[in-house]
Amino acid sequence: MRSVFPVQVKSMQHTTIAGPAPFQAEQPIPERVILGQSPAMSGIRARLAKVASADVPVLIRGESGTGKELLGKLIHAWSPRRDRPFVKIACPSLAPNLLESELFGYERGAFTGAYSAKAGLVETAHQGTLFLDEVAELDVSLQAKLLQLLQDGRYCRIGGNEERHIETRVLCSTNHSIERDLQLGYFRPDLYYRINVLGIEMPPLRDRRSDIPELVQYFLARHNRLHGSHTPPPSTRLLEVFLQYDWPGNIRELDNLMKRYVILDSEESVIREVLGSEGGDSQEITPGDNPRSLKELTRAAVRELERRIILQALRANNWNRKETARSLDISYRGLFYKIKQVGVPPKKAVTWSLMARTTDQPRAAQERLKQDPRLEDGDGRRDR
Fold first, then answer.
1. 254 burial class (0-12, 13-18, 19+ CB within 10 angstroms)?
2. Which long-range contacts (CB under 8 A, 24 or more apart) does 205-210 make?
3. Annotation: CATH topology of 9-203
4. N or C: which end of the chain has fewer CB within 10 A?
5. 242 Cβ partners below 8 Å, 6+ apart?
6. Strand runs labelled E in the chain
7. CB contact set of 375 (below 8 Å; sequence gap of 6+)
8. 348 backbone φψ class: left, alpha, beta (φ>0; ψ -120 to 50)
9. pLDDT of res. 25
10. Distance between CA atoms of 91 and 103, rounded to whole angstroms?
């Protein structure tokens, strides 16, 4: 798509805290890749110029991995604040007390270890844009302070009495229903109305399938560049598989699969991953020679269905258990219990058994997997 806007993403200044973006590139991501050409994105393309120029809060909704942060960066790039900092903070990644100190800063002696004063991210974002990723995860006590900041731009550092004033635009994102959190008392109604002046819904990748070929081309070029590879474009067969897939992990899942395709240079490994046909992923629930009661069969079928859903969600989120728990709308502890209860295999067992069947040189491929730090577990730790 040819942009009618003079400002490019590369003109932005960025400050990022607490975790990587859904996908990052050394070079600016083209607008045509972010916005696509699909009908599902047409409404966003039509409105984005007005949204960017209106200096008011924006709430970006969408499933995990749909590119909400990239859209936030694009709004900043097309806004009058384009030459000022774009500051992101991932709300779920820090405990409430740590998140408060990151947001608002602290004075010397405010707590043990505070040997000097530190400015918060809201100060860094002065006259720029503050992007709150997964704002629904904010603790209720922090919601009150954020509300005051949005109302009059005033706040205090932790341990300080001096009231400070900043001027910044706030963009927020969320991957689940804040309306339900309002009913349960987890989110303040007054804050919700403050951050939802303008709203944008990012469609899931399954609703913008016509954008998949462009995304595949972009990720192929990107990972070839990052890994120093020359992997050829995928075949028509693989593209057809992609076009038929439902993409529970959205663009992030496609990014991960293209990374695997480039590193292993094996279409079969990607196709097996998408179709979920590797050994041990499915178990047929039938009475067999030893009939069981309907209750027992139903319980076994439900357990097997839960196992498949959890395994698919883990793959879609690159085996990041925190992201998986959020996408399934359960607690981290609940997900951990379910993983043990239904017998989901560990990442290493799935990956290595897959490679042993789908590559002509399994040992060489395994060595490449071991040596590549980008194939670590989603939370930054290798499986143990």
1. buried
2. 205/65, 205/66, 205/247, 205/250, 205/251, 205/253, 205/254, 206/245, 206/246, 206/247, 207/38, 207/40, 208/36, 208/38, 208/40, 208/41, 209/38, 209/243, 210/36, 210/37, 210/38, 210/39
3. Rossmann fold (3.40.50)
4. C
5. 212, 216, 234, 254, 274
6. 13-17, 58-61, 85-90, 105-106, 118-119, 129-133, 154-155, 164-165, 169-174, 198-201
7. 263, 369
8. alpha
9. 42
10. 10
Say whether 311 sits in a helix, a strand or coil.
Answer: helix
Please report which helix (H) or strand (E) contains residue 237, including its range: helix 236-244
DSSP type of residue 360: S
Global pTM value: 0.66
- CB atoms closer than 10 angstroms to residue 232: 10
**Closest by alpha carbon to 137, among 187, 97, 203, 79?**
187
Q: Tell me the two tokens of residue 52.
A: 């960017």
CB 99 within 8 A of CB 143: no
The reported pLDDT for the residue numbered 113 is 80
CB contact at 8 A, 215 and 73: no
- CA distances in angstroms from 326 to 92, 330, 346, listed in the order given: 10, 6, 19
Residue 104's alpha-carbon distances to 89, 96, 280, in angstroms, are: 12, 12, 49
Nearest to 129 by CA among 232, 13, 255: 13
What are the pLDDT digits (tens) for 78-111? 999 999 999 998 888 777 778 888 888 888 888 8
Give Cβ neighbours of residue 276 (< 8 Å, ≥ 6 apart).
282, 308, 311, 312
Of 328, 250, 202, nearest to 22 (Cα)? 250
C-alpha 116/C-alpha 110 separation (Å) is: 9
Identity of the residue numbered 132: L
Q: Which residue, chain included where needed, has tokens 């009913």?
A: 183
- Tell me the pLDDT tens digit for each residue of 250-284: 999 999 999 999 998 888 888 888 887 434 444 44
For residue 249, give the DSSP letter: T
Report phi then psi at 338, rounded to 5. Answer: -65, -40
Amino acid at 214: E
- What digits encode the pLDDT tens for the residues 221-254? 999 999 898 999 999 999 999 999 999 899 999 9
Domain boundaries defined on the chain: 9-203, 209-375
Q: Is the pLDDT of residue 182 over 80?
A: yes
